[in-house]
Fold:
Amino acid sequence: MTTDVIDFRDETFRDDFTFRNSPAGIRRFPFPFHEDRYMYAVNIEPHAPGQVGTAYEHPIDVDEHYVAEMHDRALVLERDPLRYQSLPHMTLAGWDLLELLMDAQATAYPAHFELHRDGDRWRWINRPLGIGDTFTFGDVSTLPYGPMEYITRQSQGDFCIVDQRDGNLWMDAGMVTTQADWSLDFDIGMNFMEWHGPVPLAHELGVFDRALKFLLNIRQGQPVRRLNWTMTINPRLDTSPEEYPHWGPDRTTVTPDNVGQKVHLRVELQSFWRLPRSNAIVFPIRCYLISLDELVTVPKWGRRLHRVLETLPDELAGYKGLTRYRQMTLDWLAAYDDGAPTSPGFFPDP
Amino acid sequence: MPAGGPAAAPAGAATAPAPVATPKVQAPKLAVTVTEVIDVTPMIKRFRFEPSDGAALPPFSGGAHVIVEMREGDVLRRNPYSLMSPPSQTSSYTISVRRDDQGRGGSRFLHRDVRPGHRLLISPPVNLFPIDWRARKHLLVAGGIGITPFLAQMDQHARADSAFELHLSVRERAQGAYLDELEARFGGRVHIYCDDRGERIPLDALLADQPLGTHLYVCGPAGMMEWILATARAAGWPDQSLHSERFLAPASGAPYEVTLAVAGKTIRVTEHQSMLDAIEAAGIDAPYMCRGGACGECETAVVACEGTILHNDHFLSADDKASGRKIMPCVSRFEGRSLVLQR
Structure:
């Protein structure tokens, strides 16, 4: 077991940007490319426990950035409380999520989290954040926040809870502070087709009709997952539309000399879970960051990222916001691509 | 796919029409032991299931059902039954089963052969009849055994302190299941109508006098549900406020043959089998969820058809049914010379 005790890092995702991955943290990064060229795939697979020592080992992953990420979330919420919203009918779903996250974290990381249940009387201990609370499951007056806000202030990743009704999914609750340029405050209350409205071409291709049909039938006890990726300048978690003035200009600061420190691969591990008591679905969207300096310490990943970025269609590079620094990044990565073959699959060579 | 915006959207959609690759995993099943069988009425038995390994069952949402697998010799039957126990109770589930002597045999098997100690496999709960928690008031209307999903829902309503009323129609008081318990627990919120006393749900008056934001939920015999939903629509109730559990028992019918193109097999569907039963009996692991024509999970493409597809489901649109290109093998049948499916 590699996850019994985590050494939490003291670091920042803003201002002085002291975020770093440890050598072990680099090797567990969920690198999203399994082959040497860009290929679009709706890569949905069962969210089953994966290899030990990877981000897939446990259903809800906790890593060395946990404490710093929770601190960053608190800063965001202090300035902009609308990053968390839950419409009035979503409280039961919030309790479902609280149970899911407490249970998953306490089961996988008993050194850091404990959950004790005596009927509806629950005791939750979160050692890394110094929290110990006793409360009544289902009674909001016994917690300092609503159940969803309470537990998502203590869980890495963004969380969207969608209500299922009228053959559609409705974005009716969320905790969203580590997003790749979308706004919960804008999307709250929208249905699946509406919040995907801005995506080009995919509607016409019927992608969302099929995706919606699949999600409507997600079953209890059978979560699924997929990876998504983009790139971010500086290890900034909060790349929201609301904060664009603070991070948009960062793209102009990339130079051939600082690519390795500035340019980060940003991967989202998205999972999809049916919640039992409410019949809602939760989408945890967990963001992982890695600088290119860190990424190329795994030779396979350096070679492969160079090849994938080379074959990425221009319109997609534009859509992901990479246009301004893609060529500079390719030139920098070329030094790490000797043309040697790479092994199949995502994981580093032993 | 979830959560719009550049990184969260299906990034490659611009270049390739990508099918959603559906993971082909069937539900992990729950192993349960029957611990109690109660004769509720001469036609209805209640079964209590406890987890065989002593662990907890998952909590669920009111209105959910499970698929119960019944093995009788070589025959495997899978029938959906609504869960009626309190959704937060994880030590056991209960279902009520009305004996259907004309059916495919699942309810007869449960009534005749299943006793305490019998081990069964059930699916995790699935809810196709969920509570809409936005409603200001929940108006529940049930006929006969259609009461079962409401028993679980009412437990959730009582815990949430939501406004609700139950109107239950039964043939005769002695044949009605759970009437005394309902009246004892919920008092004036429960209204019972007995056919043999000439009592009838005062539907027009009921629908005319509800607060704004009331949602109507209906579960019972098909004719009753059609009457109630049509009356509500005619009274101006919006579709979004109408909820019904339209479970179909797969119809029996004349036997026929189906060719499965992917598997390269031709199979025979007998009189009392569904097409899905026959596909499974041929050793093919086909997707399914509700087995009642409601969820769409078992949808299959029709490759060729010389004859008539008897579409019995509630899932496909009228256009889909007319096109003859899709079929829901859980409830639909076929009459004619040959049918080839993409399965």
Notes: Chain A touches chain B through 73 residues (CB under 8 Å). The radius of gyration of chain A is 20 Å. The beta strands of chain A are 45-46, 84-86, 113-118, 121-126, 131-136, 158-165, 168-175, 224-233, 263-274, 281-291. Residues 23-334 of chain A form one domain.
